[in-house]
Amino acid sequence: MAKVKTHHEDCDVLVVGGGMAGTGATFEARHWGRDLKIICVEKANIDRSGAVAQGLYAINCYMGMQWDENQPEDHVRYARNDLMGLVREDLGYDMARHVDSAVHMFDEWGLPMMKDEKTGRYLREGKWQIMIHGESYKPIVAEAAKKSADKIYNRIMVTHLLMDEEKENRVGGAVGFNMRTGDYHVFRAKTVIVAAGGASHIFKPRAVGEGMGRTWYAPWSNGSAYALPIAVGAKMTQMENRIVLCRFKDGYGPVGAYFLHLKTYTQNANGENYEKKWYDQTKELVGEYIDHHPTPTCLRNHAFIQETIAGGGPIQMVTTEAFQDPHLETVGWENFLGMTVGQAVVWASQNIDPKYTNPELTTSEPYVMGSHATCSGAWVSGPEDLSPPEYFWGYNRMLTVDGLFGAGDTVGGSAHKFSSGSFTEGRLAAKAAVKYIQDQKAENIKVTDKQCEDFKEAIYKPLENYTVGQNEITGGTVSPSYILPIQGLQRLQRIMDEYVGGIATNYMTNDNMLKRGLELLEWLQEDLENVGAEDYHQLMRAWELKHRVLTSQCVTEHTLFRQETRWPGYYYRGDHMKLDDENWHCLTISRRDPKTGKFTMEKAPVYHIVDEKEKKEAS
Ligand SMILES: Cc1cc2nc3c(=O)[nH]c(=O)nc-3n(C[C@H](O)[C@H](O)[C@H](O)COP(=O)(O)OP(=O)(O)OC[C@H]3O[C@@H](n4cnc5c(N)ncnc54)[C@H](O)[C@@H]3O)c2cc1C
Q1: What count of other Cβ atoms lies within 10 Å of the Cβ of residue 331?
Q2: Full-prediction pTM beyond 0.70?
Q3: Which of 72, 168, 271, 566 has the largest count of CB atoms under 10 Å?
Q4: Could you report the per-residue pLDDT of 89-99, keeping only the tens digit for each?
């Protein structure tokens, strides 16, 4: 331990994670806090980090208010519909009313945007999406953050938040380690904005063994965005609302451009429109929600899953018609070049030319996110001009821990933000964080050296476990004294897969399975005291695993609490197969007591702010 070098950095605004939300936060913090010290800490390198690392082909959230294409109210209704009624409309509206300005900045900064030749407007892919040549998307927003921050720290994994010892429930910074040098980093900060992305690899992926890194969601997104706040007792919301994606099989290539731009459609192995077949059965489960337009994402998954269980698979995307048009054929291929080159490689390796063969689709394992067609994450304050009292406690996007803010996948209740909305939410959080400092709310924060030293000991313990435990190995890699991160990860994935509604059970779970899952997770948690890491890379794996397990516990508690099947196609409660608006038209909130590790659950009301506002205006 004596060998580990410690670096100290004191700052005003600390941004954890330099993805879309983190770069937005870093940029905006400088705008409002000219004289403040702003630091961004990133696990990878912000030039190519997060879910947008490889680039994107479409910006999925753009209102087009300047041309009256959409208004924020429309987006709230859209997200509400897709999430089966349950979103934080104040957060969604707030993001939507600001998102266009963020996109206009991307344009100014040099992101190649596709334009409609006739109108001169951004080229639409669908109602909300605009098309870009987006390979350079991430380096462009990273540059804005680099120019704004006092310092960007790359290759540092943040493992814990520091807490103020003077005032209860106030944040004091964060600590982590450099994965290349092994150095320990202490960041004392007046405010912290967590923007560390969502969680993949908590459920067992379809691709295992050699292929286990092949998931739809970024494999390096390990739930730090959830584990960091959960560990300090911040409230979380809608953590049961994990997402399952329908994508091209094996490469997980995106289907949005295919549906929206190429007008391709799906069919079962017999060439039938299987979605129609499951209409009556779905109506039995969810009532009139199946008649909503557009059909909620989970319900489309539901038809896919039921058809596959009934033996109608493989399900295919009909590309052979659209690909006869040379322009659409080009668009179809180019769609992968900007974001998922791997899908083109998979098709090449399997002799699939979509002009002549309809490629197969699949449903993914579940992921936890707050920015896609799903809204798991932290329970945050909304903006003061929109939020009812239950949703507002002083500073926009502040969690229930003072001085701790969130954005992007971190924030729960506000779905369909995507890349542009996450960047925008980072900007909103940073503006509020600066105001929090300017309002003198972050005075006299005390973080003692002892707190930092205690974390240091905990962080490097896996290296110690390995060094001591390896002496007991007589052959192979199995030690009686430690488990390796990969072993712990596989154990976690099986628990989540088999008990919490993964692919093994066709996304099915129930009260008994969830309780058993929680028991197994608790034992895994205990065993992680003995995780062993042979080098700094494995130390990162060990901490990623710990964050994944904490996130998984929270997901499982939430899934147990909500006694209905709100989103068939994302998961099923076999003991409560129907949607139950009478008892569960509400948001779920959890809090883990940092001292006991026990979760408590509560319900919070859903306010349909947009249409209420309109009703009032009309009357
Ligand atoms: C496969 C896929 C396709 C998508 N397609 C589109 C699309 O076509 N159009 C669109 O608009 N949006 C798309 N999105 C959505 C968009 O990518 C996300 O909404 C957005 O990236 C979320 O921003 P974020 O900052 O919350 O997370 P991210 O952008 O993922 O950033 C999180 C950052 O935190 C860092 N980090 C994580 N843990 C730690 C830690 N412990 N310490 C320090 N740093 C840490 C990560 O390295 C990463 O840089 C897609 C997402 C996925 C996964």
Answers
A1: 19
A2: yes
A3: 566
A4: 999 999 999 99
